[in-house]
Amino acid sequence: MDILGKLFLIIGQKGVILLIGVMFFIFAYKNSIRFFGWVEDQTYGTKDYVMKKLEFLHITIKDEYVTYTLLVLSFGIPVLVFGVFSLFAQFIAGAVIALILCIVGWKLPRPLMDYLAAKRVAQYQSQMVDALNLLSNGIRAGLSLPQGIGMVVAEMPAPISQEFNMILQQNKIGSSLDECFEELVKRIPTEDNEMFVTSIIILRETGGNLAETFDTIIFVIRERIRLKQKIETYVAQGMMQGGVIFCMPFAMGLMYTISDPKSMEPLFTTPLGIIALVIALTLNLTGGYIILKIVRIKV
């Protein structure tokens, strides 16, 4: 009887394992297209995304170099760190750190490229006033619009000189000037840039004074920058006040811990103290998040 019981127990365990395996296989089979699509997006998709951003940044790098860099970030560095920690008998710590580095290396390229692209757009935005002023003076001096753009390319630094130079290059290979400006808006989709391109396209079709229009755009951009800087000043003040309020409970707790450690022990050793500590931390984090949302103003 004991042998039959053990046999049924073994069969039951094997059956549970087999059932779990079958369920996992069915789940994987039904979601295989989605899974492989996600894997492709995280591998080849990341590489294509990085290449597009590098093209936008006017940085020329071979495809294989980008591939090698992504492999080193995602697998090379984590494996190296895991090997070093394993040599010093820190297997678990090495595995955890390697896993963290693998996730960071896997997820880092896209946010990094987005940051660099946003920085380039911000630099372009800051150069628009000087570029439009130069373009307006050139048109008043009798230059045509392409000649004025060429003067901006020659006198202004990157990135605005690179973007305007791309307009001239596209125009030379057969694209109309309107199409070149529309491509500029697609590359740098800011409100000021869209206003600038739209005014050029409309005035080229209907006729009008481009120099005066550029002066108006310059005034609007300057007022927007002034308002944005004013708002950023108030936001910085609110962030500072919110940071002080957020850090005040931690500072007070540190002061009490240094001056009278025994009075703080129940907070970490008793169930009621731990519950109170968790509630306080939750409320503090919630308050900090709300303050952060309140002081941030989008222009």
Helix-strand category: mainly alpha
**Helix/strand order, N-terminal first:** HHHHHHHHHHHH
Mass-distribution shape:
extended
Which value, in Å, is the CA radius of gyration? 30 Å
Count of the domains: 3
* End-to-end separation: 80 Å
Strand residue percentage: under 5%
Unreliable runs, pLDDT <50, ≥5 residues? none
Main sheet makeup = none
What proportion of the residues is helical, as a percent range?
A: over 70%
Extended strand count: 0
Q: How many distinct helices?
A: 12
Q: How would you summarize what this structure contains?
A:
88% of the residues lie in helices and 0% in strands. With 299 residues, it is mainly alpha-helical.
Question: Topology, please?
Answer:
Blueprint: H1 2-30, H2 32-56, H3 63-87, H4 91-107, H5 109-140, H6 145-155, H7 160-172, H8 177-187, H9 191-206, H10 210-259, H11 261-269, H12 271-295
Describe this structure in words.
The protein has 299 residues and is mostly helical. It folds into three domains: 2-114, no CATH class; 124-208, no CATH class; 229-295. Helices cover 88% and strands 0% of the residues. It contains twelve helices and no strands. It has helices at 2-30, 32-56, 63-87, 91-107, 109-140, 145-155, 160-172, 177-187, 191-206, 210-259, 261-269, 271-295. Helix 5 (109-140) packs across helix 6 and helix 8 (177-187) runs antiparallel to helix 9 (191-206). The termini are far apart. The mean pLDDT is 81.
